[in-house]
Write a structure and sequence with these properties.
single chain, Peroxidase, domain 1, globular, disordered C terminus
Length: 127
């Protein structure tokens, strides 16, 4: 058995998160990653993916691409077909995909906090 086959689901998600976050820069992307898990819990997967895709902010479009990459790596097809599949999925299938997306979002948040430094500004200090 190769090392790739022996990875747990969380290890695969952590690896994907590390790869995607390491390509990104800036506190805006970090902030978007930090906000993603509660946003998913409040709004749901498909509405969040649609909102991220419709945004004019580059960091939100990048986060959408990264989340689609997670789902693609988990076997939900190519990035462009995932949203269509979600619209056609049964409630049970959607729920499983949502749970996996939420776990992936938590890994994105963890990696963003670890790899993208939090920039302090003088605005926060009251100066």
């Amino acid at each position: 058995m190769s090392a790739q086959q022996a990875q747990t689901l969380d290890q695969k998600m952590a690896q994907t998160a590390r790869q995607t976050v390491s390509r990104r820069k800036g506190k805006d992307y970090r902030n978007a990653c930090e906000a993603l898990p509660p946003l998913l819990m409040q709004c749901g997967l498909l509405p969040v993916l649609a909102w991220l895709g419709s945004s004019k902010q580059t960091c939100l479009k990048e986060l959408r691409e990264d989340m689609l990459q997670h789902l693609s790596n988990l076997g939900y097809g190519k990035n462009s077909a995932i949203e269509h599949w979600l619209r056609e999925a049964s409630s049970a299938e959607y729920q499983v995909c949502f749970e996996l997306a939420l776990r992936a979002a938590v890994w994105q948040k963890r990696m963003a906090k670890a790899l993208i430094p939090k920039e302090s500004t003088s605005e926060n200090t009251g100066a």
